[in-house]
Amino acid sequence: MAVVLGAVRLQQQAAHRPAWAGTEDPKSALGSQVFEGFVAIDGHAHRAAAMRDWLRGDDPGGEKLHAFLAGDHHPTTLTVPFATAVMSLTGLAIPWSYFVVVVALFLLTVHTAGRLAVMGLPGPVTFDAYALAGSLVALHVTTTRTVGLLILDWAVALSTVAVACCAVQWSRTGATRHWVGMLLCLLLGLFTKVSALPLCCLPPLVLFAVRGTHRVPFAAFIASAGPGLLAIAAASAWSAWIADASLLGRDTGHLLGTRVRPIEFGIEMLLLGQFLPLLAWRARPWTAFVRWLAVGVVLLLVATAVFRLPSTPRLYLPVLVLGVPWLVAAAGSWLADRRVVVVYVVGNLGLAGLLLWRGA
Predict the structure, then answer these.
(1) The pLDDT value given to residue 279
(2) Alpha-carbon distance 320 to 156, whole Å?
(3) What residue spans define the domains of the chain?
């Protein structure tokens, strides 16, 4: 259902282009919001086309690709455009290659959020935590408003829950492969969007969530911070080399230049949280896992809201996909109640249909 709504919204944007997207200018593809008639945020479809041309030898010196990376607000954005470029080598057009990549990221995110929810439960339960968490993510109105659109944020959402999953496994086993997994997931996030930077704080938080504050050796805490520090160093080095810019300089300057819209922000927060945090609050006392995961959710929310209270739903996907496993761990038995499920599904799909009809 979410994928179908996403495809409809993508076609709707192409047919009725929003005013903020502007017009397609083939002479100035850098930062253009439109590609082959489809709305693609921040010119990343153009970047994917440049990567495709480089991969198939049409741009042997990489000059066109270098222009995108050196002159754009997002010099570290590589992962989603590159995956789109690879997909387009099959003959699929760039917009639909982008669509396939976004849908694949969405499905992987739903699966990983379900796994994280199962990991957070203290023992056997009477409900299917994996299915519950996956359904809550897939049917949420924020999901149905964003899945399928030509955006980067589903890669950041996947990075969020994947980092948390690897951190849980590393905190329990100490296995090197899970530590490397945390590093790779953080690299996925930072080389998608700089807004993934707060994810580097998740491994230490998850370590406390799993082991408890009083049972974390200092060496383990330092080791948990290692993947984040290495990922930041790698992204900073790339940004300085390719664009002669700091990691945060261009992107944050662009975001801080936007206009504050508190009413729209408040509406987005209501749509994001709905009645779910109230259920988690009623389910106290919380386990250590639930308490520390709540800190991570609040951290991601504040880290996004600090950029002048943005009211763009895609920016809150990391909050959603980390918040759902937290809710299942805190109040899964309440959420699994049939009446709650019916209200949630009907309410969110109804909102999604209404917003799609209004073009919001």
Answers:
(1) 82
(2) 12
(3) 94-358
